[in-house]
Design goal:
about 500 residues, binds flavin-adenine dinucleotide, four-stranded antiparallel beta sheet, single chain, about 30% helix, nine-stranded mixed beta sheet, 14 helices, alpha/beta
Length: about 500
């Protein structure tokens, strides 16, 4: 599954146009990959009048998006938000998404995404996707109910809640369990209806580039042979991220090597990014990604404390799972336990291993090999403050503050070496918000566009990520890339 060839981390050199005997097929716009980004790009390009050809490596499109929960980040006053009683002005969404985008947000992307969010939601509705007007009032990482709205990031969490007015913006399509397949069925249906042609089992491997740098086509493996496909107006790279390529992770994002259960498909091998780099595109933000160790639900676990090997807390436990997982690696040196008491313990969906169960804090500390007295002091200080509804160290919110005082006490092992760690990459090709791939000097590579995990997109840091921002980013900016490649001027 993993791309382990010796060159698997190098840019994929393009085929010079002069070396292409002839293009067997041509289209105005060639889209590489049919997940959220490629699917939405192809619909928009075709609706704009372009002849569109989608080349998809798998026998059926959908990509990681089809495997996903389908959470999509919309706000600014969608019908579902209003029906559930939430007021979410565009300015409030903007303030939050700017924080969620990371420490160096792309202001243009943030603005476009927030201002266009209600329209984008209605666009999905027009494809036939349904959403229930019900609010899921629990802290979960992986909602299984068919409720349509929930908090999926750090909206109510310190310090975010002090800088942006909270509102739930994670929208889940009206299906129980994983809803990404249902979402992508609608995208695939709309692609077919738009007139775009799709070729499956077609593995795109290189771009074709003219001497003036214009990308004029692709080289792909189809039916066991190489075929050249011409693109009169442009190629859109929408082939996913690189979480499956351990060599690329080692080179660009070593912290993501802690991922032992990648959140992706075999298509997330970085090929699209490497093709873009080979044509002169700059890759940026390559060290960043989302890490996921789901030590809740049950949400009662948020009343527990995460501690490192020195018995110290290091994060507010009510933060999003991307934020706590990042902290486990970055602040706790990838070794951490969740300490709970009998009143709040429950089996996690990821089935965390119980490292120790003891009747006293002292015995728990000894069983975990934490230096004398350190864990006991941490829990006693936490309990004293929690009794008063306070967390002076990390500002965990009041609803999750409750002293640990119901023995036995347990420690769940959250370390990457001993529990399930998912995640995916957030780095990719540098593009304008409208999809044009740029070189290191910011100049466009003519005829080349990218979106979704192939691009360094809207959210650039896992520690601030909110679930739904990946499908939201891929679909929203995929649509823009589709219009750009088709030659539609952006208003
Ligand atoms: C289990 C799971 C749950 C998730 N839950 C959520 C969620 O609820 N909300 C959220 O926002 N995100 C979620 N994500 C992440 C999210 O689904 C993805 O990051 C996002 O959908 C990526 O979209 P994309 O279009 O860039 O890539 P994809 O949807 O993966 O599409 C890429 C497509 O390109 C094809 N491809 C790859 N290489 C080639 C090639 N060389 N030639 C031709 N085709 C190629 C692939 O086969 C694939 O179909 C989840 C992911 C998983 C796996």
């Amino acid at each position: 599954m993993t791309d382990r060839r010796p060159d698997a981390q190098e840019p994929a050199a393009p085929v010079p146009a002069s070396a292409v005997p002839r293009f067997e097929v041509e289209a105005d716009v060639v889209v590489v990959g049919q997940g959220a980004a490629g699917g939405c790009a192809s619909i928009e390009a075709a609706r704009a009048g372009a002849e569109v050809l989608v080349l998809e490596r798998m026998s059926l499109g959908g990509g990681a998006t089809a495997l996903s929960t389908g959470l999509t980040y919309f706000g600014g006053g969608t019908r579902i938000q209003r029906a559930c009683g939430f007021d979410d002005p565009v300015e409030a969404m903007h303030a939050y998404v700017r924080l969620a985008a990371g420490s160096q947000p792309d202001e243009e992307r943030v603005r476009l995404y927030c201002e266009g969010s209600v329209e984008h939601f209605e666009w999905f509705c027009s494809l036939g996707v349904e959403w229930n007007a019900s609010f899921h009032d629990d802290k979960v990482t992986h909602p299984l109910s068919a409720d349509g709205l929930l908090y999926t990031g750090n909206e109510e969490v310190w310090p975010f809640c002090e800088q942006a007015r909270p509102a739930p913006r994670g929208h889940k399509p009206a299906r129980e369990g994983e809803a990404g397949g249902y979402l992508m069925e609608a995208v695939l249906r709309a692609t077919a209806a738009s007139g775009a042609r799709v070729v499956n089992d077609c593995h795109v491997q290189r771009l074709v580039q003219a001497p003036d740098r214009r990308v004029v086509g692709v080289a792909a493996r189809l039916d066991g042979r190489e075929v050249f496909v011409g693109a009169r107006r442009g190629v859109i790279l929408a082939a996913g991220g690189f979480v499956m390529n351990r060599d690329m992770l080692a080179r660009h994002a070593p912290a993501l090597l802690h991922i032992n259960t990648p959140t992706g498909t075999p298509g997330d091998d970085g090929r699209g990014i490497r093709m873009g780099m080979g044509a002169g595109g700059e890759a940026e933000n390559m060290g960043e990604g989302l890490l996921l160790n789901s030590w809740y639900p049950p949400s009662s676990h948020l009343m527990g404390i995460l501690v490192d090997a020195r018995g110290q807390r290091f994060v507010n436990e009510d933060a999003s799972i991307g934020r706590t997982s990042d902290a486990i690696v970055a602040k706790a040196d990838a070794r951490a336990w969740l300490v709970v008491d009998d009143a709040i313990y429950g089996q996690t969906q990821a089935r965390h291993r119980i490292a120790a169960v003891e009747e006293s804090f002292e015995a728990l500390e000894a069983a975990l090999g934490i230096p004398d007295g350190a864990l006991v002091r941490t829990i006693e200080a936490y309990n004293r403050a929690a009794e008063k509804g306070e967390d002076p160290l990390f500002h965990k919110a009041r609803p999750w503050l409750r002293p640990l005082q119901a023995p036995p006490y347990a420690a769940l092992d959250c370390s990457p070496a001993r529990s399930v760690w998912g995640g995916f990459t957030l780095g990719g090709l540098r593009t304008r918000a409208t999809g044009e791939v740029q070189d290191p000097d910011g100049r466009e590579i003519p005829g080349l566009y990218a979106a979704g995990r192939n691009a360094a997109g809207l959210c650039r840091e896992g520690r601030s990520y909110a679930s739904g921002l990946s499908i939201g980013d891929a679909s929203f900016f995929g649509r823009l890339a589709g219009r750009s490649a088709a030659g539609v001027p952006h208003g």
